[in-house]
Amino acid sequence: MRREGERVGSPRVDGRGGVAGLPPPCGAQRQRDDRLEGQHPPSVGLPVVSEQSTARGETTGRFPLAALLVLALAIFVNISIEMLPMGLVLPMSRDLGVSESAIGLLVSVFAFTVVLSSTPLIRLTRRLPRHRLVIGVLLVFAAATAAGAVVPSYEWVVATRIVGGLAHGVFWTVVGAYAAYLVPKEQIGRAVAITSAGGSLAFVLGLPLSTLLGQAVGWRASFAVLGVACLVAAFAVWRVLPAVDHLADVATTETGSIAVPVADPDKSVRGIVVAVVSTTLAMTGQYAFYTFIAPFLVQHAGLPEAWLSPALLAYGLMGALAIVALTLWLGRRALAGAVLCMVLMLATMLVLVLSTALPLTIAAVLVWGLAMGALPPLLQTRVLHASTERLLQPAMAWYTTGFNTGIGGGALLGAIVYDAAGPGALPWVLFAAVAISLVLIGFTTHRRSLAA
């Protein structure tokens, strides 16, 4: 039996849905857990596709809802931890004796660690079983988060965020591509919508509840609870998520892969680059503003601090509604959906800049949450659709790098603008970034239509 990760190039599929030259896959066997994962392959002959693992596009005829929900749970916990300082800016700054912008920079430290480490780490771990790798990075993430609850100073909190960022970079690169191995290409949009629901729920439940907990009993309790939640996610991955036959980026006798020529990858690379750059720009603007959403709403818009957690909850609920829209319509029209979301974000930023009425400000924040809830999974779907099989893992590494460059750069830019001009100037940063991203998408789409 072949170890996970060993693969025979691009198998030829026969008319019955099986792989030519190999026995047809057995649905019952595919549904078994990966208890046999890690056994050694036969010493001679061609490797056989594992009954416990799945290559991209191969399915058992059943939509893998349970596996996708476990991925959503893991994403929920990870995003909640990544965004944790945003809702705790005020209590953390008071307790640690640092400025509010310094707490915002914890998001930048985390994100830039992801940017610098994700590509080299994913190359170092490319032959490791994806299933075990996800469990391992979740355990590291849990330890780093729990440590954040007990460290004595701001500098030690920074250190825990660096360790968490190292784990998160590997996690997101692997998990971002995992759904593509569980479903056929035409179902990628639906699968990504389900897994992305975990990210939306992080805004719906994770961020508001951790904010509420931090206000009630201290910010350290929020870190401790999410550290335990990360352990629960690791256990769920171990029990439920199936192993996958991930693609090796090089063919060696060690992996058992066979090199296959790839038809001119230029178009695929161009599509990936446009999606990644658009993502980077949009996330830069988003996190320049959202990192400091608490002081914006409390100090600039006049929202009572006790209402902050309900306001963030409402923002997240709108993101959850966006995920429902993704599964019904937008997921099948990723480009149109992304453009619509960006236009809505531009409109809401204008309202936030011009409005002096708190109810209108809250309404604009809710529409912003709706648009932002849908945008990242739509951009991720664009990356997956643009990728060839050979470029799938590198594409997700680039996407992760771009996304976290936006998070880190945005939080840093937001801290600079916040210190220089106050929270009222932050909506303009998001407006400018999304406008540039929209122009880029429009320009490349126009060029493609002319070429056709």
UniProtKB/TrEMBL annotation:
Segments traversing the membrane: 63-81, 101-121, 133-154, 166-184, 191-213, 219-238, 272-294, 306-328, 335-354, 360-379, 391-418, 424-443
Membrane topology, from the record: Multi-pass membrane protein
Record-linked Pfam families: MFS_1 (PF07690)
Regions of compositional bias (Basic and acidic residues) in chain numbering: 1-15
Segments of this protein annotated with the region Disordered: 1-51
Major facilitator superfamily (MFS) profile domain boundaries: 66-450
GO MF term (any one): transmembrane transporter activity
Keyword rRNA-binding: no
Gene Ontology CC annotation, any one: plasma membrane
Keywords in alphabetical order: Cell membrane, Membrane, Transmembrane, Transmembrane helix
Domain of life: Bacteria
Localization terms from the record: Cell membrane
Protein's name in the database: MFS transporter
Organism: Agrococcus sediminis
